[in-house]
Amino acid sequence: MSYIVFKNKGVMDRQAVTTFGASSKENEGAIGFFGTGLKYAIAILLREGCTISIYAGKSQPMEFGVKSGRFRVDTFDFVTLNGRKLGFTTEVGKTWEMWQAFRELWCNAMDENGEAFLTGTRPEPEAGYTTIIVHGEAFLDVWAERSKYILSSQPLEVREGVEIHPGMSDVVFYRGMRAYRLDQPSVYTYNITRKCDLTEDRTIKHWWDVNQAIRAGLTHAESESIIRTAVTASKGTFEAAMDFGGSTPDKPFLKVVAELTREFNGDLNETARKSALFWNMDQLHETTAKMKLNEVDQARLDKACDFCEGMGFNVREYPIIVSEYLGEEVLGRAHDGRIYISKRTLMMGTKMLVGTLMEEFIHLRHKLYDETRTMQNFLIDTIVSLAERVNGEPL
């Protein structure tokens, strides 16, 4: 005969199985706190034909069973403790499945720094310890598949608040236990380690806790391989649908996304591309290299600068840096007191170069931004002023 045993140091108070809403654990990292889970687990085990016994030290064992009884017009199976009917039935935890009962007993033991194991011999009680003994085929089946519910793999990478584990998964783990079911499978398995609010059945309560933790883990990952796989995940996966906007990516993430953009990779997550593009603006001095121009390009740049200055835009007031790549369809940028020009802009001719230099100059000098009414008004005023100069008299 096989038994699943959950054992931890310390002696359980009997009220833990007779009182709802009372949870007291010494471990600050304890997951459970509702004071209902153990009662639910007992009810589920009995409902599914399993047996459960609890030894609190060497005192008389707590043996649980069922006894039918009427409540108003219906008959219920009441849970019993050593033959005495308790105040709840096997209907408690009605929506819970057997794996949730297993997870509850496992987490209770781990919350108290205990252990769980399979044995062919019914263990003897031990002074100073709480020992929970479960027998039943349905529970043994869950034990055999416990890796689905309790994370056992080694992480590929550990970031603050989340671990990234190998293998696809349709669930997210919380501190090593299954705690959230995804609508779409993820290409990696994620274990959230930062504090999250849980529901009574130990499910992560808020979707955004899941999304934010995983997004932060990926944008701060050091492994370029992990990042590349995540941001090019196939449609129908969790990562492919992830919105990376609002994140603050680290250099490896920016590097990988920039490389994928240059490769015109059609699988690249569009929000990852836009997020990297946005944050590159704050790191241009580190992520872009100043090009050495040939004679023709230098002459074109000088001519464009002379033209701008003749129009009243002293673009040479700011350092002008020509870079190989600033981002897809990005011709120029104004950032940190510098004008950045893409190599592609020079290839498009002097007229395009002049327009780009003037625009970035306006951004820096006048603090005006694209697609704003103030930028529109400034440009109209500039056109009118230039017309006055052509006519040789003010309006």
Structural account:
The protein has 395 residues and is an alpha+beta fold. It has 3 domains: 3-148, no CATH class; 157-280, no CATH class; 297-391, Zincin-like, CATH 3.30.2010. Helix content is 37%, strand content 23%. A 7-stranded antiparallel beta sheet has the order 5-4-3-2-7-1-6. It has a 5-stranded mixed beta sheet with strand order 8-9-12-10-11, covered by helices on one side. Helix 11 crosses helix 13. The radius of gyration is 33 Å and the shape is elongated. The N and C termini lie far apart (102 Å). 32% of the residues are buried. Residues 28-34 have low confidence and may be disordered.
Poorly predicted residue ranges: 28-34
Please state roughly what percent of the residues sit in beta strands, choosing from under 5%, 5-15%, 15-25%, 25-35%, 35-45% or over 45%: 15-25%
Radius of gyration, CA atoms, in whole angstroms: 33 Å
Strand order of the largest sheet: 5-4-3-2-7-1-6
Question: Quick one: how many beta strands?
Answer: 15
If you average the pLDDT, what whole number results?
88
The residue fraction in helices comes out at: 25-40%
Q: Which descriptor suits the 3D outline? A: elongated
Terminal residue distance: 102 Å
Order of helices and strands: EHHEEEEHEEHEEEEEHHHHHHHEEEHHH
Q: In brief, what are we looking at here?
A:
This protein has 395 residues and is α+β, with helices and mostly antiparallel strands. It is built from 14 helices and 15 strands.
